[in-house]
Amino acid sequence: MWKTILRRILIMIPELIVLSILVFLMAKAMPGDPFTGSINPKSNPAEIHRLMAANGLFDPWYVQYWHWVVNLFHGNLGMSYEYQMPVVDLIKQRGMNTLWLAVFTMILTYAIGLPLGIYAGKNEGKWSDTLIRIYTYVTMSIPFFVVLVIGIWIFGYALGWFPTSGSVSPSVSGLGPTILSRLGHIILPGLLGALFGTVNIIQYLRSQVIDSKHSAFVKTEVAKGVPSKAIYRHHIFRNSVLPIAAFAGYSITGLLGGSIFTEMIFSYPGMGQLFLNAVNFRDYTVITTLVLLYGFLNLLGTLISDIVLSIVDPRIRIE
After folding, report:
1. Cα dihedral: 147, 148, 151, 156 (round 10)
2. CA-based nearest residue to 269, from 168, 152, 167
3. Where are the transmembrane segments (predicted)?
4. Distance (Å) of CA 264 to CA 24, 154, 258, 315
5. What residues contact 67, with CB distance under 8 A and at least 6 apart?
6. What is the 3-state secondary structure (H, E, C) of the chain?
7. Residue 40's pLDDT band (boundaries 50, 70, 90)?
8. CB distance 286 to 87 below 8 Å
9. Are 83 and 289 in contact (CB under 8 A)?
């Protein structure tokens, strides 16, 4: 297994190299530049030309790419044109905010989705199963950003229960109050994100529980007189959770990439908001770094899903 993991990690290297080249070319192909209009709408074209030349933006793309790779191996991802700070520090700052929101959303997603999926499958055809299915259908039919807007309007502005922007209140100080303030800022976006994230888990888990419940080996266990709780714990749940485990890695790394809708509507300073702002302001260094980071997280998610799947069911081994 460890050899397989090492081989998969080594395969990531050429994939990331190809991805970095493509991302670098596409970023440079975007119309506009990071300086026009960002300094002053009436800036002298000669000053803009000087800034672009000083930052090497007139060099051939392969020269710019080579300089970027050399700096990358020295731990220097360049300076953000918009924020005027090192990209490494910027991503560390925003990445920590996204990590808080991602972990909280993931915990809520599985805490809500797993029990509801098992309960719906166990009570197939009953009124409780019908209510859970209606919940999943309604959730799937409403665009996510609409729910975010309605949620922030009701619970943020009308009722005033939760903050509507930022990650930490500027007035707090100290470790304890800061943690509580950060938690208060992620409860509403995390809960709304989890309610949508549970849909796939509930549907997959419900279907798997129903299939396992009507399978031949479960009927055999029932005929032997095995208690219902033991059947569900040792047979039905173990087999039903496999599809969920297969998506676990993608879910984790996907949340770490940041949700653009959530972070923009809540003005939450995370990776998703940073990426959208970087595209708007043609912040090439940030765009290239973030897309490369997202590509790495996607590859890592694939590997994590395979590892989790092999742990859940020892009969499955990644080859």
Report:
1. -170
2. 167
3. 9-27, 99-121, 142-163, 183-205, 241-266, 286-312
4. 25, 17, 10, 43
5. 56, 59
6. CHHHHHHHHHHHHHHHHHHHHHHHHHHHHCCCCCCCCCCCCCCCHHHHHHHHHHCCCCCCHHHHHHHHHHHHHCCCCCECCCCCCEHHHHHHHHHHHHHHHHHHHHHHHHHHHHHHHHHHHHCCCCHHHHHHHHHHHHHHHCCHHHHHHHHHHHHHHHCCCCCCCCCCCCCCCCHHHHHHHHHHHHHHHHHHHHHHHHHHHHHHHHHHHHHHHCCHHHHHHHHCCCCHHHHHHHHHHHHHCHHHHHHHHHHHHHHHHCCHHHHHHCCCCCHHHHHHHHHHCCCHHHHHHHHHHHHHHHHHHHHHHHHHHHHHCCCCCCC
7. low
8. yes
9. no
Whole-model pTM?
Answer: 0.75
- Write down the pLDDT at residue 34: 67
Q: Is the distance from CB of 266 to CB of 164 less than 8 angstroms?
A: yes
Q: Which of 249, 281, 287, 259 is nearest to 91 (CA)?
A: 287
Integer distance in angstroms from the first to the last C-alpha of the chain? Answer: 8
- Which structural domains are found in the chain, ordered by start? 93-259 (1.10.3720.10)
C-alpha closest to that of 144 among 272, 1, 244, 231: 272
* Contact between residue 34 and residue 81 where contact means Cβ atoms under 8 Å apart: yes
